[in-house]
Amino acid sequence: MLINVKQKLYFKQSCLTFVVINNVKKYSISDIESLIGIKAHTIRAWETRYNLVPPKRTPTNIRYYDEDDLKMLLNIVALNENGYKISRIAKLSRQQVSDLVRQLDSDWGNESIQLLNLSDATLKYDENEFSRILTGCIDEMGLVKTMDLVLFPFMKRVGMLWQTGTIDPSHEHFASSLIRDKIIVKIDKLEKPRKKKVLRFVLFLPEAEMHETGLLFARYLLKKCGHETLYLGSEIPYADIKKVISGYKPDYAFIVLTSLNLGKDLNKIIEKVMDYVEVPLLVAGSLISEFDILVKDRLTPLKNVCDMVEFLEEL
To answer: Which CATH number fits domain 192-314: 1.20.1250.20, 3.40.50.150, 3.40.50.280, 3.40.50.10490?
Structure first.
């Protein structure tokens, strides 16, 4: 599940084919391609030239990889993206490869390594390891940079793998819950600065949108900027939103759209929200950067973390 966020974001859309036999997952090369972000022909080339991670075969001669193979391939990609040539890696044992990757583990500013570590901890449901990695990244880079370079790319990839059936929904819930808890802790510890002009924001997710990570991060940024927030959470009925706007009288409404279940016509969803929200609307989330959002009065799309930070700091 490793990707280098500065170089590539590769997501396979087709349905994957891994099977489970005797409680052991068996991955096809297409599964591996999606999980590690490396093309199948590259994996085959490694196998042919260097005998790197040759696949196993079923009794009917079908090629497959197991979880140990997946971990080895993840480690190989991690080393390769950090300057190790494949020809050199091929001369190392699996244990030597693992040892080298562990030496890189404390490089908290290395996004590719930490994406690997988070992916591995998620597959194992290892809460202590996942929390350790999160804490290390945040201590080194701060929450804003960690969200931008590590956590948002990680959660986007996890969501895609869940949609295609490569991982279980429980994996996504496991990771989302721990990230959510970490952001809440950072919000609670944050001291709100004094600000001459304090604005009021109502934060919510519309119907059918339930991923709160981005919305919680927006709440963190707003508190950091000294503004007031009313946080409503996920899947708020449109009729309730209208009542809240009338009673709270915010200066802005803020939503985040990330769920693939929303479909491709985001403009219809945004238009419906605006029908119930009579104040300027800020819209963020991974889907905003992937689709063309129609320009409207009272609407400000924020396509990435930099857009969010710059807009809120300039208010």
So the answer is: 3.40.50.280
